[in-house]
Amino acid sequence: MTRSAAIYGCSGHRLTEDEKAFFAEVRPWGFIVFRRNVDSPEQMRALTDEMRDCVGDADTPVLIDQEGGRVQRMGPPHWAKYPPAAAFLEAADGLLRARELVRLGARLMAHDLKSVGVNVDCAPVLDVPVQGAHDTSGARADARAPATGARLGRAAAEGLLSGGVLPVIKHMPGHGRAFADTHKELPTVHADLATLDGWDFAPFRALSDMPIGMTAHIVFTAIDRKHPATQSKKAIRMIRERLGFGGLLLSDDLVMNALSGTLTERAETSLKAGCDLVVHWNGDMAEMRQVAEGVGKLKGKAAKRAEAALARIVREPEPLDVFAARDRFDALMAGRVEAAKGPDVGEAQA
Length: 350
Hints:
This protein is an alpha/beta fold.
């Protein structure tokens, strides 16, 4: 069945009649849920069922940003509160224990998500922040060194995959040198290619076998002086060739102020640059119609990458004693870490 090269959000806890009609018409490849869409397990299951009913496909991807810390769309009282990625190294006694903790936490998250019909998590964050970088990455990143970030990022991805949820590595080719918030403005990174290659790109190259990646709305002058990576043919070619990423490539949110032009133009430019799919998160119907005008059918190599990504979803998740696993996770983390302070990243935009 033909689908469009877009992922959309919705406005509330259930789809409106206008949303149902729009989604049935444009048939997006997938959907994304935000905190505004989350109330209870029963409501979430009903919402994800409605989304899939609109496009007539029970395997339709439903995405979420469930990282832990301040970026967690499903939380108390119905779901556990998870620590930010950076907390695992603080809580663990060495890298091996940190990897074990990260994988266990991701496996528990996958259980939470799968139980309400969510099968793609926009995590892990593989950005490696440098000194002075904007705190939009901050504690969301696993580590302050590329090799450690890659190891912990793989542990998180494996935990999600083992639970039947696809990970999305982000933000390619690296967000760790951004000195501005892409929700508000366009950052420019002036580091040379050798520096980027040895630091920013390294975790993404190490996890280039992952099924899905997400781009960064950042200008890298060593790659393309005019366009952010999301809309740069040069940057996306580098992601494919230099980083070796063969998976499905999503844009970051089109609404962010780092991008310019109308939403139709943003969608068209991102897809022409080489993104396989564009993402619009905020559920605004007028905006979604604009995006749809700039989005065509998912076809060719992009469609094959989308099919290959979905084929990575395991039908029978790795066995898990949920209560025992959660007790163990909580005991290892208890009293050692506090969730990162600050607003839920992106919530103001969606």
